[in-house]
Amino acid sequence: MENSKFIKKLFEEDGFHSYIPNSKDEINENHERIVRTSGSHNCGGRCVIKAHVKNERIVRISTEDDIKDTRENPQLRGCLRCRSYRNRMYNHDRLKYPMKRIGKRGEGKFKRISWEEAIDTIAENTKRSMKEYGPDSIYLQYATGNAGRLAERNWMKRLIGMYGGYLDYYGSYSTACTQIATPYTFGTIYTGSSRDTWQNSKLIILLGFNPAETIHGTNTAYYLKLAKEAGAKIISIDPIYSNTAIGLADKWIPIRPTTDSALLDAMAYVIITENLQDQDFLDKYCLGFDEEHMPSGIPKGNSYKSYILGEGEDKIPKTPAWAEAITGILRETIIELAREYAVNRPAALIEGFGPQRHAYGEQYTRSGTVLAAITGNIGINGGWASGTGYPVRQEFVASIPYYNPNKSQISVYSWPDAIIRGKGMGADLSVKGVKRLSSNIKLMFNLGGNTLVNQHSDSNGTAKLLEDESLVEFIVVSDHFLTPSAKFADILLPADNMMEREDIVTPWGIGDYVIYMNKAVDTIFECHNGYDWIRDLADKLGLKDEFTEGKSIEQWMEYLIGETAKRNNDFPSINEFKEKSIYRWNYDKCSIAFEDQIEDFENNPFPTPSGKIEIFSKRLWGMNNPFEIPAVPKYISAWEGPEDPIKTIYPLQCIGHHYKRRVHSTFDNTSWMEEAGKQEI
Fold it and tell me: Locate the 4Fe-4S Mo/W bis-MGD-type domain: which residues (predicted)?
């Protein structure tokens, strides 16, 4: 098929017939301009994307190919998802106009309205909710559809903070358990070294870690490939025979979901009973491994070693045979794995986020950190401290300034509780910052996210809550499509997408760069940039001057770049940054988490109460709930897990797999990605 017909076919498939190129100029290569930008959705990567534009329409998307690709500085190449973005952007189902609900909430029936009416309605309800119920009644929902510095939710936080405040959340849908658990061992969630250290690893164990599909930082799978080429053995432990297991691992070990900490306990049993632990490391840097190194005042039998050997309260040795019955992994495999990890130093045990997304996922997290400690794989090149794994090397990139005068916070997962019984909720139901909430949630802003229904648990129960207009009285949604969450909007707004705006994005999780997202094309139909409509809302609330500080969106970009440059001496000017679209920090050496502590412990203690790696946590002990919140990491059988008696009725266990063709629900309606990677059970 000739080029012009092929381009026309692709536009027809996208459903935007009004945007089909017709003039001869549009198929002339000399009239194509290339715009450098990036992906700002929650895909696990932040890559360099190049939009090829003709006649103000994107006709092709490519990626970084104009710098030398080296081991030290690999190109930031986009995957199929970003390369298919045109199919998503020009999808005929895209929201085009502001709308208001005309049917029952949740039915998905809407009527087109003007932006003026939409803003007036939002302003009236915001004023009413603040006046009648106070700031605890207004909730800005967790959302990851736009990760840019200028994302709508950031502007809304700024505005509502100025208007009196809002009910905030803490934690994350992605890393709720590990963010809570890891600091009890290390005092921080920043436990990750730079990925080039893997080339010094002799063994890498990937525990529920699948970067070939989830990306987990652009080029993470590539760094594993380099480690393998350097001689590292890679073992993937995962219920799924993932692309990572297929393409990178020397060995795949399947495991029953929710049982990872039982495996880690049994590995510790082998290491301890065969005297393979690094006792010198444990004696110097750790608290609570054995009875000789416990905090004062703790009864005998509560050390980690006592638990593992069955000398604690449960009297059960955590043998490979014990773990085999739970995990489904042969005891011989467990023994071999434990020996390999203990003997082949430096070794990296990398914990993925998936295994901590269940009941008692905190135990999995802490079990991994302790296994790294007893083998002495912390603070050394090629080792890995495990836990959350956020990189210890963090570059500063400025954000939009906002302040929330309301101190109330709830767990990111407990907003349905705050809808039903928010008034009076306290610490027993996840509240922080205040003793009790003063109101139920009455108004919700869901901007660029689908966690109202689609990515929250018990979606049917949540839908029932949202349908009841006597509970949440007003819901605002801004999105690209009529998602399951968007169906519950009272006012539904069409958002611009990442090709239609200027923004700045930082790496997903790990990486030493920042990208300027140049605007490739104008917005279509009546889609608006978040700053534009929230500025208009600020005007209705009497806060326009305070909110905008007299700045246009371009001037806010200049502000962010200027603030970033104050802490990065050679940071480029806005014009240079726009042109190159990327700034890379260059380092002469790798970054090793806790290297300072291990090399000079006396002057650099760990940021824990004891100053040591806390295998036993006195803070957890003080919670006085040893069966669900033990002071040392323990395997606790998850409800609806493989040991739950309910399996006699429901013998199959279902887990959610982060498949490569989509990002949560983003790209799920993209026909090209469906064709490239059909997801099946």
Answer: 32-93
